[in-house]
Amino acid sequence: GLATGEHSYKYRMLEGLVVPPYVTPARLNLSRTIATQPADVCHCSFPKSGSTWLANILYLVLHDGHEPGQGAPLRSHLHWMESAWTYPRTREQVDALPSPRIFKSHMPHHMALAGGPRQSPCRFIYIARNPKDVCVSYYHFESGSAWSGGYDGTWEHWLRLFMDGRVQRGDWLDHVLSWWEVRGEENMLFLRYEDLKRDFRGQLARIAAHVGVQLSPKAVDRVVAASSFSHMRAAPFSNHKHIADFQGFFRKGEVGSWRDRFTVAQTDAFDRLYTERMADSGLTFTFE
Ligand code: A3P
Q1: Which residue in the list 43, 77, 106, 175 is annotated as catalytic?
Q2: Residue nearest to atom 14 of ligand 1 (CA)
Q3: Rounded to two decimals, what is the model's pTM?
Q4: Of the options 3.40.390.10, 3.90.180.10, 3.40.50.300, 3.40.190.10, the CATH number for the domain spanning 12-278
Q5: How far is the CA of 104 from the centre of ligand 1 (A)?
Q6: Which positions of the chain have pLDDT values less than 70?
Q7: Which of 133, 172, 176, 234 has the most crowded CB, counting CB atoms within 10 A?
Q8: Whose CA is nearest to atom 20 of ligand 1?
């Protein structure tokens, strides 16, 4: 489909949600009905919120802080069930994978893997990021590559799509709040990108505890080193170079890069909308 206006943007409507064309009804059904176990981990997020960073951390935590010396890249260790793009796994293949499995999902809670934390014993981790940085990161990502939405419009139009909830995965706040509401479940951990930037070791301890791993001080140091932006961007294991040499996953890695794009008027309109809509949630973000 095409978004309204003169700009093209590829997407599909699935149960009322804007999703990438490679999220098909059959894959969503498989994702919802896959059998999960307590040892499994599923990291969830709205796009561009730090999911690759979190995936790398999870892999390292589950492997004593070691990247594999050679062989399959990070992506092939993540089971992104809702996606038909480069993830042709069948139910039988997924059932046969060794434990613990790392699942990835960009779905809102009502479309969650295996029914989400209230219905599945899997450990869920959601990562959220301030919406201005998400919006800018997503703009670069969707404009930068043929395999994503292939967006070819202006920043201004993109901002309108984002604020109207018409980008892939729909409305950012609906998505985040749907997971924020279940944050109290025992098998659920809610993280923020800005907390990882500010206090990596503290957040790493929460992640390790959530997946039931006790890391030695040396293993912690290995995770810290192998999860830095510069390391991940360079390392063949994590840099996603095998995906059409696409660098949209490692652009800046900073808090506050929205300032490069948002005008004062855009900031005012955006802040007004989100402050109002978030007021009662108790969820807050830092933007600098
Ligand atoms: P920017 O575009 O603002 O740089 P996702 O993996 O969910 O698609 O999110 C991508 C965003 O996470 C990008 O944001 C990317 O640079 C950032 N990122 C990736 N690895 C990171 C790391 N190790 N530390 C901080 N940010 C990271």
Answers
A1: 106
A2: 253
A3: 0.96
A4: 3.40.50.300
A5: 16
A6: 1-6, 86-88, 145-147, 242-247
A7: 176
A8: 53
Bridge partners (DSSP) of residue 124 are 42, 188
- In DSSP notation, 10-24 reads --EEETTEEE-TTS-
Catalytic residue check, 106 = yes
Domain chopping of the chain, boundaries: 12-278
Assembly ipTM: 0.99
pLDDT value for 120: 98
